[in-house]
């Protein structure tokens, strides 16, 4: 979720960001590279969900704690994803640029994400598409930039990046782009917040909604 606190004019945010995609596309490697600046060939498959925290000194007035949720490739079929996705304000969907099948699965992940989490105003959360492992590319999936742009427009991605966790290509840039979008949403959301004095909570409505929406 979003927790903002003011300390001597400094704003602090906690943003939950999901990292999703098929098994073996490099989700864990992308996170380890971004958070710890390391790369290893030998990460075991993530089971369930893993967490990492990245502290970003965005500018003089803004500190961001990015909570990255690394959600395992097989979890899409489990009932837990709704719980994992809750309160997320942004996402990366990762595919392996050398394996077409992992790109074909992107659509399913995006639909799943859009069905399970939205911003407070009902819009989809900003999502960046990462074509990872481009250090291993020989031509391939990402050669047609226009096609990728069109695909992202059509599917509602805010951007796409060619990345390599191994060679450290575009990982920081992609994260900066996503944080920028999250901050835009956060600013417009806080501008449009209703006056707390005027909020009358209707308890009956709350109880009727139940646990299974």
UniProtKB/TrEMBL annotation:
Signal sequence bounds: none
GO molecular function, one term: GTPase activity
Keywords, in A-Z order: GTP-binding, Lipoprotein, Membrane, Nucleotide-binding, Prenylation
Bilayer topology: Lipid-anchor
Residue ranges, annotated region (Disordered): 193-213
Alphabetized Pfam families for the sequence: Ras
One biological process term in Gene Ontology: intracellular protein transport
Any GO CC annotation of this UniProt entry: mitochondrion
Annotated Basic and acidic residues bias: 200-213
Primary localization class, coarse: membrane
Subcellular location: Membrane
PANTHER family per the UniProt record, alphabetical: RAB FAMILY, RAS-RELATED PROTEIN RAB
Family under the similarity heading: Belongs to the small GTPase superfamily. Rab family.
Function: The small GTPases Rab are key regulators in vesicle trafficking.
Protein name: Ras-related protein Rab
């Amino acid at each position: 979720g979003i927790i903002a606190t003011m300390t001597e004019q400094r704003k602090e945010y906690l943003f939950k960001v999901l990292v999703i995609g098929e098994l073996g596309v490099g989700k864990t490697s992308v996170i380890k590279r971004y958070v710890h600046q390391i790369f290893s060939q030998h990460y075991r498959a993530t089971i369930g969900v893993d967490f990492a925290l990245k502290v970003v000194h965005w500018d003089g007035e803004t500190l961001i704690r990015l909570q990255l949720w690394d959600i395992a490739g097989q979890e899409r079929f489990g009932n837990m994803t709704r719980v994992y996705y809750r309160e997320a304000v942004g996402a990366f969907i990762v595919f392996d640029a050398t394996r077409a099948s992992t790109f074909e699965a992107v659509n399913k992940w995006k639909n799943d994400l859009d069905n399970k989490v939205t911003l407070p105003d009902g819009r989809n959360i900003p999502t960046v598409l990462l074509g990872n492992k481009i250090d291993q590319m020989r031509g391939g999936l990402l050669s047609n930039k226009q096609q990728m742009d069109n695909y992202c427009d059509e599917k509602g991605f805010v951007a796409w990046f060619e990345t390599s966790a191994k060679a450290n290509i575009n990982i920081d840039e992609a994260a900066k782009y996503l944080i920028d979008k999250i901050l835009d949403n956060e600013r417009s959301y806080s501008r449009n917040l209703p006056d707390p004095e005027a909020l009358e909570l209707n308890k009956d409505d709350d109880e009727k909604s139940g646990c299974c929406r």
